[in-house]
Structure formats: structure tokens, C-alpha cells
Specification:
Enzyme class: hydrolase
Number of helices: 25
Radius of gyration: 26 Å
Shape: globular
InterPro entries: DHS-like_NAD/FAD-binding_dom (IPR029035), Myo_inos_IolD (IPR030817), THDP-binding (IPR029061), Thiamin_PyroP_enz_cen_dom (IPR012000), Thiamin_PyroP_enz_TPP-bd_dom (IPR012001), TPP-bd_CS (IPR000399), TPP_enz (IPR045229), TPP_enzyme_TPP-bd (IPR011766)
Helix content: 25-40%
Strand content: 15-25%
Organism: Paraburkholderia saeva
Keywords: Hydrolase, Thiamine pyrophosphate
CATH topology of the largest domain: Rossmann fold
Strand order of the largest sheet: 5-4-6-7-9-8
CATH architecture of the largest domain: 3-Layer(aba) Sandwich
CATH superfamily of the largest domain: Thiamin diphosphate (ThDP)-binding fold, Pyr/PP domains
Distance between the termini: 83 Å
Family: Belongs to the TPP enzyme family.
Length: 640
């Protein structure tokens, strides 16, 4: 007798919620949470910077307005004054949170979208997460060409947003509301994966933003995000331990991955246990406290004599969380003889410099490698030399940044960057642990890399992967939003200030106080010096050397300009007056700018290294011929 056929039970339908694509995107963003180091929970997205236009005001704008008042999952919207600048602020926010929290940015189509390209490139180079949500043209193409639309005769699918493809770690164009169900998890993985991390661009056609769809309600459930990072493999770990054990003169280079991987404690323990000297990249500065005995300071082109001395003598270089870019390696001329062990979450970065690869996030790699090494330590002579070199450099830094009595002819001499770096840090008794310095391009990053005493992690925030002029003030705003309890001091040259300064007004509007120090050397002083170093004549960099009309170059009143944007501001004439102004700035209730004229020619002579900048093989200038010979000599030192 045949068994009775099983009774088929009806499948329960999953509850759905009808939302526009933009509403769904915003609600999903608000539902993502992270666990902070203290065990508390916070939204993954700290907010959305928005400048509205016809491409995003109706769809994304309406969705953001509704979500900002949600009692359970609020998502604040912040208005800015420039799309590139607000993306810089969002990127700086993520960097200040060591990639554990982030922000999104939304723009209209056209210039709003293309203004994001520079910021996206900066995030890409620096491996920092930001979610870019530019509006896009109509999928229906009913009103083509819509206002601001880019038309490409040979490819109708191309829009302005395609310019973002090359500078995005993940790119998608949402052409149907249901697409979010697959796209958003992929985007989140890129934003929270140590190996993949970088900018994500989701182009949002304006008609699709407004289109409704029945989404699974579970898609918007509050959830804790898990961050992904690789652990070391046994085989790579064993080979790395053998390499280090065989070293006589090892040097560790601390890169940004130490900070982003929350590996500062692991680094300190590793260094102390095995007595390995440390040098710091721009992104890694502050990974080890400035007064740690084996911290030899900055490495490379902008490096200290201590770190560069140890690098030239090292037989093994352990690069932890570093991209090993040319400023770190001296264009591959600083330690070409050394074997390199590259510890990095990104496999792409572990094969540079013909390195031995240990593909892993920094903390598990250092802990595991230390366990493999057990009680192995560097030789006594190397340890002694490193301690002495580091101690000598700290003494030099103290002298360079000390308060010096001004007498005689020195009274008429303009200060240079070291004088003001010292004055900033003297203006607060606990500056290394209290202040966050923000900078990006020009002479200042070199001086700060050498001379800033970085204490509490995150106290040194210099964007030097893309070396992007204009990042400084916008970046400072993002840092302050992330770390409101700390004093954020933006140090910026006049050239960068003039490129981008509008977020002074945003900082005043948001109550996000910055102290902005403008060092006015009346031009692009850094490139002017480089121009002459490669044999060129001073030309088109300093205002005095530029083509001018009958009225000449303007004397910019930076303090008056900042006051016009709502900040408090003053101009000072000397270091003593600057120190007094710093006290007023620290006590001020809102953003405070101090401008001061500085010496355009003087820099810190100590330290530094060769950097490859191609010099013309032929020229009418004898200076170029001399520079070319020096260039060829430098190239002889490069890793072959």
C-alpha cells in the first residue's frame, strides 16, 4: 500500500515594507552599528554630508529628512559648502576613528559629482572608507539631456559618475530599487575589510531614487557590523620568524596599518620584548609614543637622521602596515641592501620591494610572530646604537622647537615652521596627549613628520598618501566631529588655505571648533625650493615670481577672511605674540584662526633623504646639468 503523499504547508510570506530606493538606502545605513573599544555601540555611519541639487534633493533629500528624526535609528545630515571638501571631512572622520566608523556623502549630478573625484582618489590612496552617493541621470532617459548631463556620442551609458570608477574600490550604478539587496552588502564588505578598504561609489539615477519597491523588512533590522581582516598563515609566519631570527640589524617600519589595525599595544610589546628599533611613516606616526626609547622617529625623504641612519645599516626591514611608497623608501634608495618582511592585510602591498610576505592584519601578525620568536632579541650593539640615535634625535627636536631668546638681527628674522610647531606644543602642558594636528601638503608635513611629538594615538593626522592641498581645514572638521573632546589644530600654508577654506563656515555652523594656524610664506614655498633643487629658476611658485598685472600680487589678510566666514581670527608678527594668541585660541568658544608670516626658504636641515624627481637630460641652464649629475648618482643607490 502506498504511503500517503505529504501535505504541503504554505510558505509564510516574509514581511515587506514599501519604500523608495532612496528611503531604503538611508534606512539601511541607519541600521548598521559597530562595537567601540569601550564595549559600547554606535552607528557605523556618523552622518551624511549633503549638498543638494536637482539630482538628489527629491529622492535622497526626502529620505534623509525623514531619517534624521527617527527616534530609534537617527541619521544626521550635515550641510557643507564644497563637495570635495565635505568628502575630505568624511574621510578624515573615518581616519580619526581608525576606520571603525565612517560617513557618507551625497551630491547632485554634474559638477557636484565630479567634485568628488579628487577626494575619492585621496581615500583610495590612503585606504580609507567613505560612501559616495552622487546623483545620476535618468535611467528612463525621458528628459535627456537633463541639466548638467554629460553626453558621450559613442557610449550612451556613460555619465559624469563614470569618472569615479578609477578612484573607487567598489562602484555600482543602481538602475532598479531591488539592486540594493545585493549591492549594499558588497559595498559594506569593502568599507569594513582591511584588505579591500577604500571609497565606495553608488551612483543613484534620480528616477530610480524615487521609485518604490517592496523590500524585506529584515533588511532594515538593526545589526552589528563585523570587520574583516586576515590572520597570518602558518607557512608565512614560520618563514617570517626565520628571517627575523637570522637578522643582525633589524629595523621595524610602522605604517598606518598599525593604527587602523588597533595594533599599537601589540607593536609596543613586540618592540620592547625583542629590542627592535622603530621608524614611522607619515600614516604610522603616533603608532608608538614619541618618547618610547626605541622610537627613532620619521623615516625616509622627510625622515629623522636617527631613523634613516638605522635604515641604511639594517639587514632586515620589517614593514608593518605600510604601502612602502617612495617617501618611505627614499625612492628605493634608503635600504636597497636589506631584505624586507612586509606585514600587511593587503596582499597587494606585501609583494613590494621583493618582500617576504606575511599577509595579515598588524595585531595578530605581531602577536604571532612574537610568540614564534620567543625570547629572541637583537644584538646588544645594535640595541645600544638604536637607543643612542633615538635619544640624540629627541634632544635635537627639543632644541629645534624650544623657545629661543631673540636678540639683535634675529629680531627681524621671520620664524620658520619648527618655531611654530614648538610654540603650538608649548601652549598646552599635555599637548602630545591632548592635541590632534592636521596637515596635508607642502613644507609642513616634512617638518611635522620630523618634529611633532605624537603622544595619544591619532594625535598626528597628516594626509600624505595623496598629498592633497586643500585637505587641511576640511579634514580638520572631520577630525573634530570624530574627536570632539580633543583640541584639533590645523596647520596650513597660505597656498593650501587659498585652495580650499570654505569649511571654516561649516565648522562655525556645526559648533565644531578648530584652531587654524596659517603659515604665510607668500607662495608655494615647498615647490619653489624643489624647483631650484632640480636646477630650475624660481618661477611661477612664489607670488613675487609670477606673471602679474599692474596692481601686483595681493597681500591676503587671512584673519579678515576667516572673520568673514564667522571665525575668530588675528594676525601676529612674531613667535611670542603667536604663543599668546594660541592661549586665546584655546580658550575661544569657536573656530579661531591665527596667521603669521614665515620664512619661505628655511627648513630643518637635519635628516631627509634623496627623492627621485626626474631632471631634464638637456637644458640651457648649467644648474640643470649639475642637478642631472646628482640625479644619476642618486639612481645608482636604488634597489635593483
Amino acid at each position: 500500500m502506498n504511503a500517503p503523499a505529504p501535505t504541503l504547508q504554505p510558505v509564510a510570506m516574509q514581511p515587506t515594507v514599501r519604500l523608495t530606493m532612496a528611503q531604503a538606502l538611508v534606512r539601511w545605513m541607519a541600521a548598521q552599528f559597530v562595537t567601540l573599544p569601550d564595549g559600547s555601540e554606535a552607528p557605523l555611519f556618523g552622518g551624511v554630508f549633503a549638498i543638494f541639487g536637482h539630482g538628489n534633493v527629491a529622492g535622497v533629500g526626502e529620505a534623509l529628512h525623514a531619517q534624521r528624526d527617527d527616534p530609534h535609528l537617527p541619521l544626521p545630515t550635515l550641510r557643507a559648502h564644497n563637495e570635495q571638501a565635505m568628502a575630505h571631512s568624511a574621510i578624515a572622520y573615518a581616519k580619526a576613528h581608525f576606520r571603525r566608523r565612517m560617513m557618507a556623502v551625497t551630491t547632485s549630478i554634474g559638477p557636484g559629482a565630479t567634485n568628488l573625484v579628487t577626494a575619492a582618489a585621496l581615500a583610495h590612496v590612503n585606504r580609507l572608507p567613505v560612501l559616495l552617493l552622487p546623483g545620476d541621470t535618468f535611467v528612463s532617459r525621458a528628459p535627456d539631456p537633463v541639466l548638467q548631463q554629460i553626453e558621450v556620442p559613442h557610449d550612451a551609458t556613460v555619465t559624469a559618475n563614470d569618472a569615479l570608477r578609477a578612484v573607487s574600490r567598489y562602484f555600482d550604478r543602481i538602475v532598479h530599487p531591488a539592486q540594493l539587496l545585493g549591492t549594499l552588502p558588497r559595498a559594506l564588505r569593502v568599507l569594513t575589510d582591511a584588505a579591500l578598504c577604500g571609497p565606495v561609489t553608488l551612483a543613484l539615477p534620480q528616477d530610480v531614487q524615487a521609485a518604490a519597491y517592496d523590500y524585506p523588512a529584515s533588511f532594515f533590522a538593526r545589526r552589528l557590523v563585523i570587520f574583516h581582516a586576515p590572520a597570518p598563515s602558518a607557512a608565512e609566519l614560520q618563514r617570517a620568524a626565520e628571517l627575523v631570527r637570522g637578522a643582525h640589524r633589524p629595523l621595524l617600519i610602522a605604517g598606518g596599518g598599525v593604527l587602523y589595525g588597533h595594533a599599537t599595544d601589540a607593536l609596543a610589546a613586540f618592540v620592547r620584548r625583542h629590542r627592535i628599533p622603530v621608524a614611522e611613516t607619515q600614516a604610522g606616526k603616533g603608532a608608538l609614543n614619541w618618547d618610547e626609547p626605541l622610537n627613532c622617529g620619521a623615516i625616509g625623504v622627510t625622515g629623522s637622521p636617527a631613523a634613516n641612519q638605522m635604515a641604511t645599516q639594517a639587514d632586515v626591514v620589517i614593514a608593518v602596515g605600510s604601502r612602502l611608497q617612495d617617501f618611505t623608501t627614499g625612492s628605493h634608495s634608503l635600504f636597497p641592501h636589506a631584505r624586507v618582511l612586509a606585514i600587511n592585510a593587503s596582499a597587494f602591498d606585501t609583494v613590494k620591494c621583493d618582500a617576504f610576505a606575511l599577509c595579515s592584519d598588524a595585531a595578530p601578525a605581531l602577536d604571532a610572530l612574537s610568540a614564534q620568536l620567543r625570547d629572541w632579541q637583537t644584538e646588544a650593539a645594535w640595541h645600544h646604537d638604536a637607543l643612542q640615535a633615538a635619544d640624540r634625535w629627541r634632544s635635537i627636536v627639543s632644541n629645534l622647537t624650544a623657545q629661543h631668546a631673540v636678540t639683535g638681527t634675529d629680531a627681524a628674522r621671520l620664524p620658520y615652521d619648527a618655531d611654530l610647531i614648538g610654540a603650538v606644543q608649548r601652549s598646552h602642558a599635555d599637548s602630545p596627549a591632548h592635541d590632534i594636528v592636521v596637515c596635508a601638503a607642502g613644507t609642513l608635513p616634512a617638518e611635522l613628520h620630523k618634529l611633532w611629538r605624537a603622544g595619544a594615538r591619532g594625535g598626528y593626522h597628516v594626509e600624505y598618501g595623496f598629498s592633497c592641498m586643500g585637505y587641511e581645514i576640511a579634514g580638520g572638521l572631520g577630525v573634530k566631529l570624530a574627536r570632539p573632546e580633543r583640541e584639533v589644530i590645523v596647520m596650513v600654508g597660505d597656498g593650501s588655505y587659498l585652495m580650499m577654506n570654505s569649511e571654516i563656515a561649516t565648522s562655525v555652523m556645526l559648533g565644531a571648533k578648530l584652531i587654524i594656524v596659517v603659515l604665510d610664506n607668500r607662495g608655494y614655498g615647498c615647490i619653489n625650493r624643489l624647483q631650484q633643487a632640480v636646477g630650475g629658476a624660481p618661477f611661477n611658485n612664489m607670488l613675487a615670481d609670477c606673471l602679474q598685472g599692474p596692481h601686483g600680487a595681493p597681500a591676503t589678510d587671512f584673519a579678515a577672511h576667516a572673520r568673514a566666514l564667522g571665525a575668530l581670527a588675528e594676525h601676529v608678527d612674531n613667535v611670542a605674540a603667536f604663543e599668546a594668541a594660541m592661549q586665546r585660541a584655546r580658550a575661544a568658544p569657536r573656530t579661531y584662526l591665527i596667521s603669521i608670516d614665515t620664512d619661505a626658504a628655511r627648513t630643518t636641515a637635519e635628516g631627509g633623504w634623496w627623492w627621485e624627481v626626474a631632471v631634464p637630460q638637456t637644458s640651457a641652464r648649467a644648474q640643470v646639468h649639475a642637478a642631472y649629475e646628482a640625479y644619476l648618482a642618486g639612481k645608482q643607490q636604488q634597489r635593483r
